[in-house]
Input
Amino acid sequence: MFSEELLKYDWDDITRRIHAKTAADVRRALSKPHCDVDDFMALISPAAEPFLEPMAQLSRRYTEERFGRTVSMFIPLYLTNSCTNSCVYCSFHVANKMPRTILTPEEMVREYEAIKRLGPFENLLLVTGENPAKAGTAYLAKALDLAKPYFSNLKIEVMPLSEEDYRTLTRHGMNGVICFQETYHRENYKLYHPRGMKSNFEWRVNGFDRMGAAGVHSIGMGVLIGLEKEWRTDLTMMALHLRYLQRRYWRTKYSVNFPRLCPAENGGFQPNCVMTDKELAQLTFAMRIFDHDVDISYSTREKADFRNHMATLGVTTMSAGSHTEPGGYATHAEALEQFSVGDARSVRSVEEALRRVGREPVWKDWDSSFDNPKMV
Output
């Protein structure tokens, strides 16, 4: 399990190594056809900041060689904001006195139909808070069953599950799982997640092993940038995790996401660092140079102009038209959203903008028949 592998690495040592990187280390990484984690550390280090232009060009080259000029489109649907956790940074916090919404099967169908009216989406991400008693595996299986007539590719972003639960949901049409570790700093993790199921660091970080063992086709991972002052160290730990998973579960497709915490306007949780657009661009280029095959996803957290630009330089998956409140497309527009979107453009506006910068939006890139040799 990765929790045991992680014990080999010291947070402070990784931090020192990153900040000790030099321009020569960056040039060496850029000259190599394939990079290791030490090279990734150089590419995200402060020493790499003067090299953003060559990094951008190399990132563009590797992206187009592997993915062409395509951007895969998806849309999230929040099924519930009910949650038993007390994450200090999240509006779904169990102590937050707010109405909780759990979509009924009838409401799910209305949401699916409303999404299909927005655009030709075939990639749907189902999202929940962590409340296994009210929105557990049986609830998710029902949501997947009802979604199958509408969408070709179904992923979930929910609480970490058991290996058997992942196998069960795969039989109900689930093709992928996204899970944010939030932070790989074992001690600080408990500060941000003091109570609830999510407070168990080992259960969460080892969830990716359970996904791989269950044969999940696509695994998405990420950290919540802003929880740790040393975001570069957190991302290095994620790079180590990615390489570990690729070695053990080599048939699985992997994706990464870099969600950024924004300063709270209402006096709530304040991030320990605020990543700039320039730093996010550097991280994106570094990840693409480090791994030519990994899918890099940007959500509507990011602003429209920035997303347009990064779609030409390394990003391969984007959401559009997103609502982050449960039932936000048709049934519960008044519910509390998890975070405010930065790109509120319509689906068609996003599509047209991508075409203007020379990218081809792809609405369907997976079908369940691909897993059935008799249908190929």
User: Anything to note?
Assistant: The mean pLDDT is 93.
